[in-house]
Amino acid sequence: MPRLHPQLQPFAPSAEAPFDAVKAAHLLNRAGFGGTMPEIDKVLSLGPGRAVEWLLDFPDAPAEEQSRTDVPDLSSIEGYPRTFAERRAMFEGKTPEERQAINQKLQQDNRAAIQQTVAWWLRRMAGGPYPLQEKLTFFWHGHFTTSARDERSAWLMWQQNELLRRNAAGNFREFVRSISRDPAMLDYLNNSQNRKKHPNENYARELMELFTLGIGNYTETDIKEAARAFTGWTHDGDSFFFRKNDHDYDEKTFLGVRGNLDGDDVIDIILRQKACAPYIAGRIWSYFVYDNPEPELCQSLGEILRDAKWDLRPLLHTMFASRGFYSDRAIGTQIKSPVQLLVGTVRMLGLSMPPPRQVAGALDQMGQIPLAPPNVKGWPGGKSWINTSTLFVRYNTCVQLVNGGELATGGKVARRLFGRGRGGGGETLAVSGDAPAERLVDYWIARLIQRPIAEEKRQTLIATIANRPDDENAIRAMIQLIVSMPEYQLC
């Protein structure tokens, strides 16, 4: 078995580097959207290795096997045509004016359904039982990017979202095969228009450049040959459809392999390339741990993926339980995405998700709406999240969530943070007066920031609740100060 890169060795707690509440909160931030105090206690009781096993213990059940109550409200598109034949029938015999009116109504209803789907997903992120599954689903949404910005069907976007969730920690080979047949993807990258007489190279190009290999590991000729292999791969409404008359059955030469290749052959050849596994490993590590990982680390992590026959769980377990994951380079160094910021604030503080329109407005101003990435590369992330206008919205949104007031775009939050009689673990301690102000402040800093703050800031927080640690308004004021700190923008 290949020797693990030092950063991939299991994190071993010690007196100098204990597995404490800060590290537990870090795990729940990166492998989800933040943790409640009971969840932090659970992680602490399990330890770093078993905690990762617990987080990875989620079902890969198909959507139809899940509770039918756990679906977005798509009632606005109940009559939306699911196949091209149904769509033609809807417009048949109509005047141009009637067709325009029908089309406008379909678009209006679809936009409403997209908004409901986004709201449904955010609620799952904030309150669902499997935070790592949702975080992985969101990662893959930015990796296998598809956008609803150009009026793509809400039904197709939800269907793809379920595909991402189903494969989030599954087999990467099967994942790529499934996404290559996904109607939303086929539509977004124009493979539905890829025909023998008129090949379209969009999907073939992005499959290699963004999804599997990275730039420099293929040629323009490989793109053309791969596009030929995917000819005829299209969809009829919400189902994959192979149009055999549009497929190119002639021999092709792709990455040095010659034969009568189809799309599955292309995927298998790609996964045999030395660059593939390290590329995927590097993308995953960069998202969940830290940017620009060492090439040797990517190589070592990629070998774990290959040795597992492309099963993602061993890679994920190794990563989340590693020294590198708990290193100073990782903890508290990642700028929160708008979704991480909003959902994390709601989840960690036990808030209710605000109404869909207000959430969408705030996320739009911060630069990230789920199901609407700006282009096929997804969201750039990192420092791009922060500028003078977005920073104001970020601060204001967090403060108003805590205050139980209005978001940046208006709209009341349904439930206040520290209502009288609120129960639950650490929160009860925090408002009960059972601990001095210093301990309460340190407790909330550890939960929400995971890094020491300047002593001057700490003393300001202590002064806010001094002599009144059981005053909900004082506690709320202290939390508002924490979430408005620059340090809270990191996780």
The end-to-end distance, rounded to whole angstroms, is 34 Å
Biggest sheet, strands in spatial order?
A: 1-2
Q: Low-confidence stretches at least 5 residues in length (pLDDT < 50)?
A: 410-434
Number of strands: 4
Following the backbone from N to C, one meets helices and strands in this order, namely: HHHHHHHHHHEEEEHHHHHHHHHHH
Q: Structural class, from helix and strand content?
A: mainly alpha
Shape: globular
Q: How many alpha or pi helices? A: 21
The biggest sheet, with number of strands, parallel, antiparallel or mixed sense and barrel status, is: 2 strands, antiparallel
Share of helix, binned: 40-55%
Strand content: under 5%
pLDDT averaged over residues: 91
Computed CA radius of gyration, to the nearest angstrom: 24 Å
Can you give a write-up of this model?
It is a single chain. With 491 residues, the chain is mainly α. Among the domains are: 16-57 and 274-326, no CATH class; 425-489. The protein is built from 21 helices and four strands. It has helices spanning 21-30, 37-56, 84-91, 96-127, 131-143, 154-166, 172-179, 183-188, 202-212, 220-229, 263-271, 276-288, 295-307, 312-320, 338-349, 356-366, 388-403, 425-432, 437-448, 455-465, 472-483, and strands at residues 233-236, 239-242, 252-254, 257-259. The protein has a two-stranded antiparallel sheet. Helix 12 crosses helix 13 (295-307). The longest helix has 32 residues, at 96-127. The chain starts with 20 loop residues before the first helix and ends in an 8-residue tail after the last helix. The model is unreliable at 410-434 (pLDDT under 50).
